[in-house]
Amino acid sequence: MKRVLRWLGALLLLLLLGGGGALAYLLSHPSLAAYRGLELPARPGTGVRVTFLGTATLLFDDGETAFMTDGYFSRPSVWRVLLGKVAPDRARIAATLARAHVDRLAAVITLHSHIDHAMDSPEVALRTGALLVGSSSTANVGRGWGLPEERLRIVKGGESLRFGKFTVTVLRSQHSPHAVAPGEITAPLRPPVSALAYKEGGSFSLLVAHDGDARVVLVQGSAGFEPGALAGRHADVAFLASGALGKQGQAYREQYWQETVRSVGAQRAILIHWDDFMQPLDAPLVPMPRALDDFVAGTEALLGFGRRDHVEVRLPPLGVAFDPYAE
Ligand SMILES: [Zn+2]
Rounded to the nearest whole angstrom, what is the distance from the C-alpha of residue 212 to the centroid of ligand 1? Predict the structure, then answer.
C-alpha cells in the first residue's frame, strides 16, 4: 500500500512538473533576433513622423499637430489580465508620454475597445487635451474615466476628420477571428474592472493623409478585415497588425494580406501589434507568448507575400520618431 501511494505521489509530481513545463512553454516568447534587420531606422527630420509605442499605438506628428491611435501604456501583467481587475496606470502613462515628448494631442483615435487598445485612451486624452475618437463603446470607456461629453467623438466608419493638416478617414473593419470579449460596452465603464469588460465594440481602419504630402498611410489595428472595405482606396504604406496571425491558417493570412496591403496598393507593410502587451514598455519588446500567437509563422507568411508581391515588410523602431516613407 505504501509503495502504491509512493508511486502515485511520484506520478502526480511528474504530472505537475510536466504541466508546469507546458505552461512555461505557452507563456514563453519567441525570439525577435532573426527579425531585427527589418527595423526601420529612427529619423526625426521634418514632414510626417510616426512613433510606434507598442501594440497598435502610433503617434503621428508633423511638428504642428499630433494625434495618436489607442495610447495603451499600462500593460498590466498576464496574471492581472487573467485573474484580477485592471485600471489605467497613471504613473506608467505619464512616464511613457514624457519619454515620447507628448504633451499636446489633437486626438486619440481608438481602433476598438479591447483593453489593449482602449483602456488608457481617456487618460491619455485627459493629459493631452485630446478629443477621444472611437465607437460608442469607446465613448463609454471615456465617460467611465470622467472625460466630459464635449471631448468625445463617436464614429461609425465613413467619417473624414481634420486635425491641423492631417485628414483621417475612419473606415469600418473587423477584428481578428475568435477574439475574446466580443460585443458592446453599453454603459460608462468605471475601472478597476475585469479585462473582459473591455468589449470590442466594432473595429476601424484609418487612412491618414497630410496636406504637405501626396502619400497616404493605412492603419490596420487588428488582424481582421471587412471584405471589400478598402477596395478603391489607396495607401503607400500600411501599418499592419500581425498579432495572432500565426494562429490562423495560410488561406486566412493570404486573404488578410489581399484585403489590406494589396487592396490599397501599399509598397510597404510595417508590422505592429505583434508584441506581448502584458509586458511593460520600459523593456525591449518581445513577441506575444506562444499561447496567443506563433510569431515566426505569421511573420514568415507576411515576408513571403511581400517577396512575391514586391512589397517591403518592415518592423517599426520602438519609441523613436521615424519616417514611414523613408527610402
Ligand atoms: Zn482586440
Answer: 33
14's enclosing H/E stretch is helix 2-27
201 alpha carbon to ligand 1 midpoint, in Å? Answer: 10
- CA distance from start to end of the chain: 75
User: 97 is written with which cell numbers?
Assistant: 508620454
Say how many Å lie between the CA of residue 123 and the centre of ligand 1: 19
Q: Over the range 231-260, which residues count as b (16 or more CB within 10 Å of their CB) and which as e?
A: eeeebbbbbbbbbbbbbbeeebbeebbebb
pLDDT band at 296 (very low <50, low <70, confident <90, very high): very high
Distance between Cα 302 and ligand 1 center (Å): 20
| Confidence band for 43, pLDDT divided at 50, 70 and 90 | confident
Q: How far, CA to CA in Å, does 137 sit from each of 50, 143, 146, 153?
A: 27, 10, 15, 11
pTM: 0.93
Distance in Å, CA 200 to ligand 1 centroid: 6
Centre of ligand 1 to C-alpha 242, Å, is: 12
Does the CA dihedral 160-178-286-138 come out positive or negative? positive
Q: Model confidence over 119-165: pLDDT tens digits?
A: 999 999 999 999 999 999 999 999 999 999 999 999 999 999 999 99
User: pLDDT exceeding 70 applies to what percent of the chain?
Assistant: 94
Q: Which residues surround ligand 1, an ion (CB under 5 A)?
A: 114
Residues in CB range of 327: below 8 A, 6 or more apart: none
Distance CA 293, CA 245 (A): 7
